[in-house]
Amino acid sequence: xxxxxxxxxxxxxxxxxxxxxxxxxxxxxxxxxxxxxxxxxxxxxxxxxxxxxxxxxxxxxxxxxxxxxxxxxxxxxxxxxxxxxxxxxxxxxxxxxxxxxxxxxxxxxxxxxxxxxxxxxxxxxxxxxxxxxxxxxxxxxxxxxxxxxxxxxxxxxxxxxxxxxxxxxxxxxxxxxxxxxxxxxxxxxxxxxxxxxxxxxxxxxxxxxxxxxxxxxxxxxxxxxxxxxxxxxxxxxxxxxxxxxxxxxxxxxxxxxxxxxxxx
Length: 264
Known about the structure:
Layout: H1 2-7, H2 13-18, H3 36-44, H4 49-55, H5 68-76, E1 85-89, H6 95-104, E2 109-114, E3 128-131, H7 137-147, E4 150-155, H8 161-171, E5 175-184, H9 204-215, E6 233-239, E7 242-247
Parallel strand pairs: 1-2, 1-4, 2-3, 4-5
Antiparallel strand pairs: 5-7, 6-7
């Protein structure tokens, strides 16, 4: 490591990226003197109710990248006003759970998990809070059992590479049919301090790539990377630092020509 530190100034950008050196989030902080609402409306053409909930948040703070707000609404809006079972990994100071309660409504079952024991004080305010690690599979199973199942998982937890795939592989099989699994802040996939690096095997986008390869197993002969996921992940959507996995039974693709033409 001492040698790398000495040589670092002389390394090309490609090598630095592979080593997991990137740009920190402080460079992207929005000017607090400017209008958050106007920024989101102007850039993303979104002015839905979730935007109002976000910008008018009081009491417990919530910290979100601006482009997440329209993405949340795009994928979660069909669950509003229903008995949705929502699990958020990472409670922080409780503002996010408060936002989700206001968004999904009183019928929703909302749980948050965090490894920080101080988050237990937030239990019962906007949802139920349980203390434990997202890498503790028996703990995750107990939480989902207590919830009576889960329809949406939002991983806003440690953002560590060693946790992201492990948590996904544990929880995605438990997500209900037609449910969603979203992982956010995946910019950490490129950062050494989180176990990431550009095109490194540990990079979570490398994991996603193999999930996509498994989805297309009809078209190649490579063995499945994750057999337990291959027939239940019906779609993957990737945005800047966000990945959404759709839960649904998959079927062998077929095709038709209409009207059917006689074969010569």
